[in-house]
């Protein structure tokens, strides 16, 4: 029995590594990862390496992009590159927190539904569907009306909003794994159900879950930008990509360059995250085909 | 078929009940109430007067009673009354419905035209670079929040080139030309963001149908590529794209909220945002439920239509 376990573990590892290798062999995936890496790096090094985002220089208000200020300057002459990098800490932090909440809740929710077919599965999935019946933004607005727009409240709300979809993805990924040959083999040799679920099925479903996590980060970034833009998200003086975009939009007549930096970062980040999710899914579909 | 429709309609109705409970409960989870916010500016307000106000608004009743009043009112067509302006919510919604419908219709029409042209053209003409270009357009369209296109359009055409003016909404009955001029940029903005997911669905459908046998036969018979695509590929690819219409409506609703905000369009979206600012729960709960109802209804219609067009789905029960 121990030999069989060993070989099973090997194949699990091989599948995981195969997905990663095939993922990295795709140029769009690599570009997307690089873009995300740059943004995270920018947010991390901002306090040490970039010009101070609070240094006011009223002689150079609304500056166009140039050598000294790659993205230009704002209404007080502050460097927009460092402001955008600093705002990235709030935006990316919010997105990471919301995604972490969504993944923990959603995976538990979907796993429970997949593991207990019958009325519990039915109830859990109906609840998920009802929650998905309202467009996310409308739901978010209701929550903001109730809880206000503190960053902690918003993170929890965004996490809650993305949990149902994550649960549905998790359930279908786990169910697909449960149908496969190796699960039947493990059941036959007497492995316990929880061991199969946690030690075998979940690791195999990991790529699909990571793809969903990537899409969740994109969704939270979009939500933050939208809520902050209409003034119901992160509140000044705290800066996020959404609040900077709003500030730039309000000053459009003074400088068309002002909103460019936050807009570019939001679009590039979401496009990169969508690409990562998309490419992982393509790799997974490819694996299924070759397996047939 | 009748049973399928009934079952599906029942699920939709249940869903809306769930949504209404959820919205109602979430808005009342935290202590504190809107009347205090309303009179908050006035210091030293008489507690008796406050209680009177709360009684008038029905806020002193127990929650289930409040919910019951709200729902039975809705079924009679009474959407409640704003805590602040004292207007009936029905009146407020009525004023905003026209502009939102106008913007949504224009946006969706534009999106469908854009999607058809941009997905069919690369298929007819072949050629790799055109397909890549459209691919880039969809990636951008899916990644940009709707208002970003609005900002770009304003920056380009209004601020930089000055060919268009920043116009605010005029009722079509007052000034039809002015109304259309004001509609142009918001509709284009909404159209661009709605077209991206539509193109994705359509192109996926097109490439799938293109590989099928009857298309190969048609090509083999020597029918020109253009008619093969338009007569044999496109009709079969449209069906799967229909499901994305339900998703699109959800995006229209969310898109309208922000696009209306960017262009100061006096529609339902800006009504919701305004009421969230003011914590006007009476307006929020009815408007959000109304919008959710539209969303659920359209998805119901799409599902039923899909069942009519694709007999495979009609057999037996709803697909899990």
From TrEMBL, chain A:
Protein topology in the membrane: Multi-pass membrane protein
Location within or outside the cell: Cell membrane
Ranges where the ABC transmembrane type-1 domain occurs: 88-277
Residue intervals passing through the bilayer: 29-51, 92-112, 132-161, 215-236, 256-276
Keyword Transmembrane: yes
InterPro entries xref list: BP-dependent_transpt_permease, MetI-like, MetI-like_sf, OppC_N
Chief location bin: membrane
CDD domains assigned to the protein according to its UniProt record, in alphabetical order: TM_PBP2 (cd06261)
Record Gene3D superfamilies: MetI-like
Keyword line: Cell membrane, Membrane, Transmembrane, Transmembrane helix, Transport
One Pfam family of this chain: OppC_N
Family the entry assigns: Belongs to the binding-protein-dependent transport system permease family.
UniProt-recorded name of the protein: ABC transporter permease
UniProtKB/TrEMBL annotation, chain B:
Segments passing through the bilayer: 12-30, 103-125, 137-163, 183-202, 237-263, 283-306
Classification via SUPFAM superfamilies: MetI-like (SSF161098)
ABC transmembrane type-1 domain ranges (all copies): 97-306
Keyword check for NAD: no
Compartments, record wording: Cell membrane
Membrane topology: Multi-pass membrane protein
Major location category of this protein: membrane
Name of the protein: ABC transporter permease
Top-level taxonomy: Bacteria, Bacillati, Actinomycetota, Actinomycetes, Pseudonocardiales
Organism this protein belongs to: Amycolatopsis samaneae
Gene3D superfamilies: MetI-like
């Amino acid at each position: 029995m121990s030999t069989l376990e060993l070989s099973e573990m090997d194949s699990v590892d091989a599948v995981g590594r195969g997905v990663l290798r095939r993922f990295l062999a795709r140029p769009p995936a690599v570009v997307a990862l690089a873009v995300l890496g740059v943004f995270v790096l920018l947010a991390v090094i901002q306090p040490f390496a970039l010009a101070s985002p609070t240094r006011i220089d009223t002689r150079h208000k609304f500056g166009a992009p140039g050598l000294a200020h790659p993205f230009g300057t704002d209404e007080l002459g502050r460097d927009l590159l460092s402001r955008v990098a600093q705002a990235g800490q709030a935006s990316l932090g919010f997105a990471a927190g919301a995604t972490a909440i969504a993944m923990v809740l959603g995976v538990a929710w979907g796993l429970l539904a997949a593991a207990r077919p019958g009325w519990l599965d039915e109830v859990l999935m109906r609840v998920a569907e009802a929650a998905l019946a309202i467009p996310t933004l409308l739901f978010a607005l209701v929550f903001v009306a109730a809880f206000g727009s503190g960053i902690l409240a918003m993170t929890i709300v965004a996490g809650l909003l993305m949990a149902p979809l994550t649960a549905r993805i998790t359930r279908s990924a786990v169910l697909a794994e449960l149908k496969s040959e190796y699960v039947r083999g493990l059941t036959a040799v007497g492995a316990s159900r929880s061991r199969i679920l946690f030690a075998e099925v979940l690791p195999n479903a990991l790529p699909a879950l990571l793809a969903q996590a990537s899409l969740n980060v994109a969704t939270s970034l979009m939500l933050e930008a939208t809520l902050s833009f209409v003034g119901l998200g992160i509140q000044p003086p705290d800066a996020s990509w959404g609040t900077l975009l709003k500030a730039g939009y309000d000053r459009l007549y003074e400088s068309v360059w002002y909103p460019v930096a936050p807009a570019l970062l939001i679009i590039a980040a979401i496009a990169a995250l969508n690409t990562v999710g998309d490419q992982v899914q393509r790799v997974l579909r490819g694996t299924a085909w070759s397996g047939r | 078929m009748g049973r399928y429709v009934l079952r599906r309609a029942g699920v939709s109705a249940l869903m809306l009940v769930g949504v209404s409970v959820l919205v109602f409960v979430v808005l009342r989870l935290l202590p504190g109430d809107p009347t205090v916010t309303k009179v908050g500016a006035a210091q030293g307000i008489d507690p008796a007067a406050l209680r009177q106000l709360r009684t008038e608004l029905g806020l002193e009743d127990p929650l289930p009673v409040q919910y019951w009043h709200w729902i039975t009112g809705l079924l009679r067509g009474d959407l409640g009354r704003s805590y602040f302006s004292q207007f009936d919510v029905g009146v407020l919604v009525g004023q905003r419905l026209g502009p939102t419908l106008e913007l949504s219709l224009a946006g969706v029409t534009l999106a469908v035209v854009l999607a058809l042209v941009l997905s069919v053209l690369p298929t007819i003409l072949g050629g790799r670079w055109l397909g890549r270009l459209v691919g880039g357009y969809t990636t951008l369209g899916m990644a940009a929040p709707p208002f970003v296109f609005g900002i770009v359009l304003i920056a380009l055409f209004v601020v930089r080139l000055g060919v268009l003016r920043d116009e605010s909404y005029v009722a079509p009955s007052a000034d039809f030309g002015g109304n259309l001029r004001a509609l142009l940029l918001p509709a284009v903005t909404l159209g661009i963001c709605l077209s991206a997911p539509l193109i994705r669905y359509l192109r996926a459908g097109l490439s799938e149908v293109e590989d099928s046998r009857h298309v190969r036969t048609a090509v083999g018979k020597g029918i020109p590529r253009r008619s093969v695509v338009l007569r044999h590929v496109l009709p079969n690819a449209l069906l799967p794209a229909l499901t994305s219409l339900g998703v699109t409506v959800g995006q229209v609703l969310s898109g309208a909220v922000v696009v209306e905000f960017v262009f100061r369009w006096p529609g339902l979206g800006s009504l919701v945002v305004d009421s969230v600012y003011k914590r006007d729960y009476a307006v929020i709960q009815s408007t959000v439920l109304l919008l959710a109802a539209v969303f659920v209804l359209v998805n119901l219609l799409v599902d039923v239509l899909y069942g009519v067009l694709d007999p495979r789905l009609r057999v037996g029960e709803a697909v899990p």
